[in-house]
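PROTEIN DATA CARD
Card holder: diguanylate cyclase
Chain length: 402
Origin: Mesorhizobium robiniae
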Amino acid sequence: MLVALLNPTIALALGAVFLVLWFYQRHRPYLAVLAASYSLSAAGFLFQYFTLPVGMAPTKLLSNTCFTFAACCLCSAIVARYGRSVPYVGIGVLAGGGLTAFCWFLFVQPDLTWRILAMNFGFGGLSLLVAAELRPVRGRGPTEMILFVLSLLSGLNFFVRTLAVIIAHGPFTSYDGFYASSYWTTALLSHALLSLLIALCLFCAAALDVMKALKAEAYTDPLSGLLNRRGFEERARLLLQHCATAKLPVALVVADLDHFKALNDLHGHAAGDRVIADFAAKLLSAAGTRGVAGRIGGEEFAVLLPLSDLGAARLFAEAIRTLYAAGSVDGLPPGTRVTASFGVAARTGDEGLEPLMRRADEALYKAKRNGRDSVRLSYERPESVFVVEPLAAADRSRLDSH
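Structure generated from the sequence above:
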């Protein structure tokens, strides 16, 4: 009796855990589907042992229907978790075919052995279908590879174990002694082991999702949608290291919105927020996926551009400056012109992020001092010239206040 309650107890516990996870992460519906899958699996095992008043045959049909829907939910949730398109047709054909064959050998041509084969082959096909869907993503990380391997093992379990046991100890003619047979014992143990392993792997995947979300929140500026200063510096250092290893050129563009304090005072902070969001959207669109863009201060932005020399970075900055100066910002009075100034520096040798940012910032100060709404370049010079940075920052702040 204890063995009989092993699988439903495990399944109910796993279903409850996934349900709790879903309550705290409603934006991940695959967790709710997993909770339904394990709950249905628990019900299926219970109906195997307890016959309802409607009779044995309807109870067995209900039990295997629960198993079938549980398998469909599990397959769909795993595939959806990894961003793949759920193969509903394939799942429907395999699950529906197995359940239809089960009904045939239950009501039309009763045969317990063929009922076992029909259900196990259907579940085995579903497992291999999941493995096929996970194959393109199995190299992304350990959880993907482990789930891929577990899907293959599950498929082999349903096919090979079932055939081996039936050949060695079958065929089965009735349910008398069925639950003490080698087939049912191996089915219970293998299902318990694989269910636990798959659930643990999915727990790890859910935990990684939370960690990634927390990291993204910690490294992202909520107003602009760009990286904040910490996120930008971390990503930029990694990119600089990669470019140094691959001997690739890289350039830095820093930007500062002109007269931003005056704009805030005149039109209000809500208008200032719209200006920042609008500029960030244009900057991100221009940088694309190759550049690292961040909001590194109140109205200061930076973009690190790989595969770009000083000339290419200057063209990038000029394009942004022209586009922004010629456009309008929603929420500001018609005719209100908002501009930005830019400083550009190309990396020399194995220059680190700090000196590269100092040179770009000094070029930006020149742009602000010489009339704003312009792009200035920083050429390679000795590091000692950067002792004037505090004065430059103070002067720039004083200029912005006018």
